[in-house]
UniProtKB/TrEMBL annotation:
Keyword Metal-binding in annotation: yes
Species this protein is from: Panicum hallii var. hallii
Name this polypeptide is given: Ent-kaurene oxidase
Main location: membrane
Cellular component GO terms, alphabetical: chloroplast outer membrane; endoplasmic reticulum
GO biological process, one term: ent-kaurene oxidation to kaurenoic acid
Keywords: Heme, Iron, Membrane, Metal-binding, Monooxygenase, Oxidoreductase, Transmembrane, Transmembrane helix
InterPro entries: Cyt_P450 (IPR001128), Cyt_P450_CS (IPR017972), Cyt_P450_E_grp-I (IPR002401), Cyt_P450_sf (IPR036396), KO_chloroplastic (IPR044225)
Amino acid sequence: MESLVAALPAGGAAAAAAAAVGGLLAAAALAGRAGAKNNSSNAPPGQSATVIPRSLVWLMLLQGPDRVLLPDPPGSFSAPLILGVAEDWRSNSFGVSHNRAHFLSVPGLPIVGNLLQLKEKKPHQTFTKWAEIYGPIYTIKTGASSVVVLNSTQVAKEAMIAKFSSISTRKLSKALSVLTRDKTMVATSDYGDFHKMVKRYVMTSMLGTSGQKQFRDTRNMMVDNMLNTFHTLLNDDPNAPLNFREVFKNELFRLSLIQALGEDVSSVYVEEFGKDISKEEIYQATVVDMMMCAIEVDWRDFFPYLSWVPNRTFETRLLTTEGRRTAVMRALINQQKKRIARGAARISYLDFLLAENTLTDEQLLMLVWEAVIEAADTTLVTTEWAMYEVAKHPGKQDRLYQEIQEVCGNDIVTEDHLPRLPYLNAVFHETLRRHSPVSLVPPRFVHENTNLAGYDVPAGTEMVINLYGCNMNKSDWEEPEEWKPERFLDGRFESADMYKTMAFGAGRRACAGSMQAMYISCTAIARFVQEFAWRLKEGDEDKADTIQLTTNRLYPLYVYLTPRGRE
Ligand code: HEM
């Protein structure tokens, strides 16, 4: 069951933050359902109901769930229900309204619902396939809970913007509740006073326009360092392919430490471990282990009526990982508090939060950790996919290089050039569309009755917004499987619009770090192409599989680089 459950969270953002907020939480969406009502009646009120014949019930049970399309969510498969399932259906519990055809449920099995169909660990892809059969909105069952899945940009925007006041609450799995210390983060907190306060903090000090200006030199240093490392590696062995991820990851983590803590920490003494740990170990404890642990979903999340059954393996792993993260973060913060006590204040998120003096120690720790994990993952995922596509499509790479030459000449590309590089902008957004780094929006919870796309959605419904599905929807995007930056240059989109795709979410809970992601990713892509011609390692053309909460490439990107002008 654990592998089955682990399948679900492949999408999510901080999760652990709920996945990093975007991706991680998505996992939770599917996992933490305690309290979710199983109200499957999405039919507009007052519509007549149809009885599902007993023969159809048995047909489904005998033939297998995929063969028979049931026109209506079959309600909760709780243990008592299973025993009397046919009776329930016969007795009209699961009525069908006239226009339910647009709001179907995906047939599943008793008790487990659709869990087994989500085994392949990429729920965003499975949801997208189901959208082709059942339409852009449908319900699924994950154990005892019903979840509405949205796969259309129009309806997703309606949920995230127009109906925000009714759908603003987050829904977390047990793992995410523990890892996020019960929603003590910007990304995982419910919309309310705490959320508004900490979002203001993170925007003012770090992620808003003036916050970003303060870290511009750090971003420049980061890209300079990457280019220098590429040159060094090439000099060492001109014929060996380079591991792009290794170089980018190290520099991005350096930036996230400087922004969050004020220092590029190389090691720290952790009291609980009784020793110094290296930067690599800090990364492991604060980013990698958390991303992996966030997708470890407790099977009891799907069956709240079995919550009394012990699950010690899960609990031990969760508490150990969480404890290590907390110990390391506490050590890092204490190290910086000593710096501040010496009178060496710096521009950093930690310095800012300490000066505000409104947070408890636990809140401070969680927010600083959130800044580390969020900065260190999704931008890497996006830029790695972009460089994969650029290296795979030499014609498009040439077009990008030409644009850079025309606009920048002999000057190094800077953030000031970005508004004048429309093809670069298109490369960035097309990568976000095709590879949606946060494939499932951190799960939302309908906390008051509302109406979506004409259907009543009752309070208690869980909602998963499949950004990957929205961005691959054939009615919105021509040939959605293709990576075609040109699609953003046909006049339909504003160059400055950060929400051309749904990759950053939308509305009041939209990504707080989109500007940072854009600055880093676009400047890096442009400078990489300005400096080198990129070619994939032989045989890597179709290595496009993904892993983890955010849509990390399964295999790190390996490339051959040729310095421009020396071809
Ligand atoms: C390409 C990179 C990124 C992508 C695709 C991305 C995507 C997302 C998504 C989909 C959400 C959830 C939106 C929702 O619930 O409606 C989100 C939220 C958030 N992201 Fe990002 N993100 C990226 C980079 C970053 C970075 C670099 C940071 C910070 C350093 C960051 C910080 C946040 C925060 C704080 C939230 C929570 C906002 C809120 O709940 O009000 N993100 N992100």
